[in-house]
């Protein structure tokens, strides 16, 4: 019998001092990791069910939407809002503002990603 499922590719990883960042094959919301990364809009409104944000919303119920509603928005592109993992197995969720309204849209480059700014919640 031939399987229709391809094996997962090897997980690439990068080392930064004592920190290891590893790409993992699978559902990001089911990973027991220190933090998962969510590409967010500048208003911290979670997206459609097909997106990572939508899956986070689906699996945390309205808890995550409530937490994000306390963030003063819009946040600047490149800002990071850190939330607890709530009932996900991860410790934290990093919501990085990578897109917003058409007048503030631009592509985040390497320089932006090296100077990510943390944005506190109220």
Which secondary structure elements does this structure contain, and how are they paired or packed?
Layout: E1 13-16, E2 19-22, E3 35-41, H1 52-60, H2 63-68, E4 79-84, E5 92-99, H3 110-114, E6 117-119
Parallel strand pairs: 3-5, 4-6
Antiparallel strand pairs: 1-2, 4-5
Helix residue percentage:
10-25%
Give the total of beta strands. 6
Cα distance, first to last residue? 56 Å
Into which percentage range does the β-strand content fall? 25-35%
Topology pattern, helix = H, strand = E: EEEHHEEHE
Mean pLDDT, rounded to whole units?
A: 80
Main sheet properties:
4 strands, mixed
Radius of gyration equals: 16 Å
Low-confidence parts: none
- Which word captures the global form? globular
The total of helices stands at 3
Strand order of the largest sheet: 3-5-4-6
Which structural class should the secondary elements be placed in? alpha/beta
């Amino acid at each position: 019998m031939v399987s229709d499922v391809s094996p997962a590719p090897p997980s690439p990883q990068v080392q930064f001092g004592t920190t290891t960042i590893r790409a993992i094959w699978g559902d990001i919301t089911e990973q027991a990791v220190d933090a998962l990364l969510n590409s967010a809009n500048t208003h911290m409104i979670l997206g459609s069910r097909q997106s990572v944000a939508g899956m986070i919303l689906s699996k945390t119920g309205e808890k995550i939407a409530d937490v994000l509603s306390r963030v003063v928005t819009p946040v600047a592109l490149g800002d990071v809002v850190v939330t607890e993992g709530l009932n996900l197995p991860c410790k934290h969720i990093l919501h990085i503002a990578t897109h917003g309204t058409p007048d503030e849209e631009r592509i985040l480059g390497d320089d932006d990603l090296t100077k990510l700014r943390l944005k506190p919640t109220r």
